[in-house]
Specification:
This protein is mainly alpha-helical. Helix content is 73%, strand content 5%. The protein has 7 helices and 3 strands. The N and C termini lie far apart (63 Å).
Length: 186
């Protein structure tokens, strides 16, 4: 099909925006956030909310809420456009910085909470064993919980490393993986 450059750009933006919407929805964000960020990212100029709504085919309310969320996460910002009365928006363009910020604010908090809760569960069972030594069911459960705690601590280090420097290495889990393999056969 022979389309004009404008039609080709609109089609490409639509495909990319829908795809990013699916990706961010998988991460637990609103699909509209991904669609709007992609439109802004692919736009050479900042855009006002009404143009965003028209190009994404989202309601003014959905655009307003998504822009608010994008601003809160630091994924978009307001842009000054000389002579314009409307607010204009542009996308943050350092994609790795965005991913690291989201991981630090969401995933690291989740894994940190897992470390705290598994630690608490281990303490509960250790206290129980101090009062009732030799209970085989409690000893078995304690051993398994210590394994989960170790895995959560390693996960925290992995996520923290990625959030801090943007690299991901499996070095911290080499020994832990063999531990869990042995544990299943015990």
């Amino acid at each position: 099909m022979n389309s004009t450059p404008e039609e080709a750009r609109q089609r490409a933006v639509g495909l990319a925006a829908d795809t990013m919407g699916e990706i961010v929805a998988f991460w637990g964000f609103k699909a509209s956030m991904g669609r709007i960020w992609t439109l802004l990212y692919l736009s050479s100029d900042p855009l006002p909310a009404d143009v965003i709504a028209q190009r994404t085919q989202l309601s003014a309310g959905a655009v307003s809420m998504a822009l608010h969320d994008l601003l809160q996460w630091g994924i978009a910002d307001r842009a000054m456009v000389p002579g314009a009365r409307k607010r204009h928006y542009r996308a943050a363009t350092d994609v790795w910085a965005i991913v690291r910020r989201i991981i630090r604010q969401r995933e690291l908090r989740l894994v940190g909470r897992a470390v705290e809760r598994f630690s608490e569960a281990v303490r509960v069972l250790e206290d129980s064993l101090a009062n009732h030594p030799g209970d085989p069911s409690t000893q078995f459960m304690l051993q398994r919980l210590r394994g989960l705690l170790q895995l959560a601590r390693i996960g925290y280090k992995l996520v923290e490393g990625f959030a801090d420097v943007g690299t991901f290495t499996l070095d911290p889990i080499r020994g832990a993986l063999s531990y869990f393999g042995r544990e299943q056969h015990a």
